[in-house]
Design brief:
This protein is α/β, with parallel strands linked by helices. It has a domain at 90-156. It contains eight helices and nine strands. The protein has a six-stranded mixed β-sheet, with helices on both faces. The protein has a three-stranded antiparallel β-sheet with strand order 2-1-4. The longest helix has 18 residues, at 171-188. It is globular, with a radius of gyration of 18 Å. The two termini are 21 Å apart.
């Protein structure tokens, strides 16, 4: 079996101190492997974003550990190994669409010519090439969200962490974008965790985890791309039992 991309073991996150402290995440434990397709559901304020920030290395836990066995130390995760697609605006206002998509590729060390070629290919997958010279303020919110997804895929990541990536899209466009996203990930062998309130998004993924009051409930990860076996049928639940609901 492939080495895990992320291992979270008893991870907690507390904000503040004393009586005013808030426990946003409580002893979350899970593992994410290459090719996993995981939907993370739960009400607003349940701890989903906190969890995503921790497993992506954007924040550090108050307790427990997060490691990235297949990806290296936290400092090596970006740019490229893990990418984030945020719910809110994430394009840099002074840069054009093509420059926004090209930027992480340049930061990876690609030449301007190679970065532009990869960026154009990513935009083409989402039928966005005609917007290449537009500034973010000149395109719609839905178009900006698709550009952000194209930017994430352009770097050929090992793991995408997406917070409501279709939240600003109409129903038909959301399904189309999700299909392109999942198809591209299959070609890359990459994993994705999508935080979503949309049942249509969740049902397109292999596995659904849920978050409530800072407690992560994980079901065994369904990995149809791997042969069934004790380690793959129940990858997360077999590794740990703390806070794992199966």
């Amino acid at each position: 079996m492939a080495e895990p991309l992320v291992i979270a073991n008893g991870v907690s996150r507390r904000f503040g101190s004393g009586p005013a402290a808030t426990d946003a995440l409580r002893e979350a434990t899970c593992a994410i492997y290459p090719g996993d397709r995981i939907a993370l559901t739960g009400p607003s304020g349940s701890g989903k974003s906190t969890f995503m920030h921790l497993i992506g290395g954007l924040d550090v836990p108050s307790g427990g550990t997060v490691t990235w066995p297949a990806l290296g130390p936290r400092a090596a995760l970006r740019p490229g190994r893990i990418v984030d697609v945020f719910q809110g605006p994430s394009l840099l206002p002074p840069l054009s669409v093509i420059e926004n998509v090209r930027l992480p590729l340049v930061l990876q060390g690609l030449s301007d010519r190679a970065a532009t070629k990869h960026a154009e290919s990513a935009l083409s997958a989402f039928t966005l090439v005609h917007l290449r010279d537009k500034l973010p303020e000149e395109i719609s919110g839905g178009q900006a969200q698709r550009v952000a997804i194209a930017r994430a895929l352009a770097v050929r990541p090992a793991l995408i962490l997406a917070d409501e990536p279709t939240g600003q899209l109409d129903s038909a466009t959301a399904i189309e974008v999700l299909s392109i996203l999942l198809g591209t990930l299959a070609d890359l062998g990459a994993a994705i965790v999508i935080s979503t309130h949309d049942p249509r998004v969740a049902e397109r993924l292999d596995t659904v985890w849920s978050m409530r009051d800072g407690v992560l409930a994980t079901l065994p990860v369904n990995r149809p791309h791997e042969p069934a076996g004790p380690a793959t049928r129940c990858g997360t639940a077999l590794l740990w039992t703390s806070r794992v609901v199966s």
